[in-house]
Amino acid sequence: RAMPTPRLTRTSENGIRGKPTVINNAETLANVPKILRNGASWFAGLGTDTSGGTKVFSLTGKVKSNGLVEVPMGATLRDVVYKVGGGIDQDRAFKGIQLGGPTGGCVPESCLDSRVDYESLAVAGTIMGSGGMVVLDETNCIVDTAKFFLDITQAESCGKCTPCRIGMRRMYEILERITSGNGRDGDVELLEDLGSHIRATSLCGFGMTAPNPVLSTVRYFRDEYNVHIRDRKCPALVCKSLLTFSCIEETCTGCGMCKRVCPADAIRGTRKKPHFIDQELCVKCGSCFDSCKFGAILKE
After folding, report:
1. By C-alpha distance, which of 188, 270, 196, 260 is closest to 230?
2. How many CB atoms within 10 Å of residue 161?
3. Buried-exposed string 11-32: b where 16+ CB fall within 10 A, e elsewhere
């Protein structure tokens, strides 16, 4: 007869199975052998006075060399992106870095000389968090990026407290409205108000940091939000609902490729003569832009 599986119980007084219990993540435990071998003073000497040691980041996004990187605390974001990561992929313009995972904040170029330590990142409006570091370039839309991370956080909410459970969903709906071309005056202020209340009244650290992607991007990239709302345009040409596709008459050869791939039959014209796109029928899928070999489709 099989013996019953011991029940894992943990209390603040006793730990698992009534024994002293140490709970840490893999990164912390990986540092233990090096500290035992070289001493605590050696490890603390690698960082700053208040943030000792090193930090492992998952460096991803629009950077030439991505992967897991380990840097000493106190290194600048500029060093991580340009020395460790090799700079921006295809030498495009740097736009920002999302730090700390989905509940972290996004900081702009003006923060590149900020040091990688807990205090400096907090001043910049972000967190160390899970060690995520997503580099953004000029082809990334800030509003769409904030929506992407908020989609994760609102789905991951445990649902126990109302501010996080309902508030995050309302924030996501506002971002969807903005990126679909239906943004309203006051939406940015509403996002700030909701985010501040969620941060102040959520029961756990997750809810307190979940609005960070929106609050930080509004802080640093407010103009991009306003362009989406006021002009119904996406400067990075990412939000499909805000795009317009048209044929450039001087460049179009009339090959008909765009016409063949259009799923909405929105392109008109005869062979070897310039074509045009019926804007009322266009579904903004971008198939014409991707298929044109002559650069005759304008996306704006």
Report:
1. 188
2. 16
3. eeeeeeeeeeeeeeeeeeeeee
- Note the helical H segments in 101-161: 118-124, 142-156
Q: With contact defined as beta carbons under 8 Å apart, do 71 and 116 qualify? A: yes
79 and 107 belong to one structural domain: yes
* Tens digits of residue pLDDT in 157-190: 898 999 999 999 999 999 999 999 999 999 999 9
Could you give the count of Cα atoms lying within 13 Å of 249 in the half-sphere of its Cβ?
1
Cα–Cα distance for residue pair 231/27, rounded to 1 Å = 46
Strand order of the β-sheet with 105-108 is: 67-72, 54-61, 132-137, 94-99, 105-108
> Among the three residues 90, 113, 137, which one is the final residue of a domain in this structure?
137
Of 231, 99, 102, which Cα lies nearest the Cα of 157?
102
Prediction pTM value: 0.82
Beta bridge partners of residue 55, listed in sequence order = 71
- 198 pLDDT more than 90: yes
Q: Are residues 114 and 67 in the same domain?
A: yes
Residue 282: give its domain's CATH number: 3.30.70.20
* Model confidence band, residue 4 (pLDDT cutoffs 50, 70, 90): low
Strand partners, 115: 76
Q: Is the dihedral of CA 200, 202, 208, 210 positive or negative?
A: negative
